[in-house]
Amino acid sequence: DAMMDYWGSFAHHGIPGKGRSNAYTNWPPWGQGKGQYMILDTATDGGIRPSSQFVSITELTQRLINDNKDSQKYLCAFYAELFLWSFQESYHWNKTEYERLGGQGCGAYPPHSFSP
Q1: How would you class 82 by CB atoms within 10 Å of its CB: exposed for 0-12, middle for 13-18, buried for 19 or more?
Q2: If DSSP codes are grouped into helix, strand and coil, which group holds residue 50?
Q3: What angle separates helix 72-80 from helix 57-66, to the nearest 10 degrees?
Q4: By C-alpha distance, which of 22, 51, 47, 17 is closest to 34?
């Protein structure tokens, strides 16, 4: 709901602000200090809050490769959807990384099985 509210404000005003309903934490325009990113967590996980933390593609893929908490199928689907099927250019797709995800690899889950 919050993301939709932020998008509504962005579409209408050109900035996400406090959302279209004006009910959420302020998301400042890009380039105006810290908090360029918003964490859209539940209240039990810290709630909606600005963050200046930047996660690179390299760091994200390393986290996925080392992940042993999520199911293997979930990791494979997430990687394929993120780097092969999303709005991102597929140049982030790396077959070797895909084969190493979660320590078990994704050989049992062909990436095209997750095609939208």
Answers
A1: middle
A2: strand
A3: 160
A4: 51
Q: pLDDT, tens digit, for every residue of 100-113? A: 887 788 889 999 89
- Let me know: does 115 contact 85? Beta carbons within 8 Å: yes
Residue identified by tokens 């140049």 is 91
Backbone angles phi, psi at 27, to 5 degrees: -105, 100
Q: Using an 8 Å Cβ cutoff, are 39 and 51 in contact?
A: yes
Q: What is the pTM of this model?
A: 0.56
pLDDT tens for each residue of 11-51: 999 889 999 999 999 987 776 566 678 888 989 989 998 88
